Amino acid sequence: MSASQIRSNLKKVYFDDPPPVTFLNDLRPDQVIYRVFSKDRFEEMLSQRKLALVRPSLWDDPYENFLHQGAIKVDGRLVGLDLLRRSFYGQCWTLKEESDAIWRIYAPNKNGVRIKTTVQKLADVLHERTIQMGQRQHSFHKCFIGKVSYRDEVEMHRLMTDNETRLAMIADTAGRSPAMTLLFKRPAFSHEEEVRAIYNTVGESQKNVYGDVLLFDFDPATFIDEICFDPRMLTIYEQEKAKLESSGVAIPITCSTLYKPISDNLLWGKSD
Q1: Which SS3 state, helix, strand or coil, does residue 244 take?
Q2: Quick check: is 268 in a domain?
Q3: CB of 74 within 8 A of CB of 186?
Q4: Does 40 map to a domain?
Q5: Which residue range is the domain that position 50 belongs to?
Q6: Cα-based torsion angle of the residue sequence 161, 162, 164, 170 in order, rounded to the nearest 10 degrees
């Protein structure tokens, strides 16, 4: 028997197929989700055909990723969680089709582009990487997508300071609890109606050392259902649309009318 045949047989015995993506907090795979990019970042994503998930430590809210901050006590000893913290990557989406706040937050230079897809299509992108890596599935599930749960600060503080609760969450062999902690935010952010993709690299070979960004291959033509330009780009929308179409983009393209001027017919004293 050749070495390749031996490896193949060992893989069949000891390596499991990657598990499917787990949907959390009553998120359905058929739900439509949206994400706003700056125009430059959108064009980069489109040309490179890569979705970027980042380490939660880069997120702005200091309450995010709280479970993995600091250390926990195990048998009286403090144990750091740096390896666990560095193994998680995430990406933020929203269930809201239109939002003044989201345009302003994620496209402060008034040059945003919103893409539309479904939860299932995002799950397929995450799952495909797991298949490509061919990694043995250890104790942690790799892919989660869930709705963010908005918790008051009292509850957040309790979870952050209760060592037993934190230990139990980290010890969850299904990986569900550590992922769930990345879906907690305070009520001040509830207007975002956020959905998050969570990817965990625990179980991959130690030689795979990643930075703050983890890239996922995807096909824009099948992943993106609609491209929508920033409402503050209404005057140059047709020009930007023509550029995309001339480059071969066949995805439906629109422009938000959130700030479109009011028709004269609707103004007092202007109607016939």
Answers
A1: helix
A2: no
A3: no
A4: yes
A5: 18-262
A6: -50
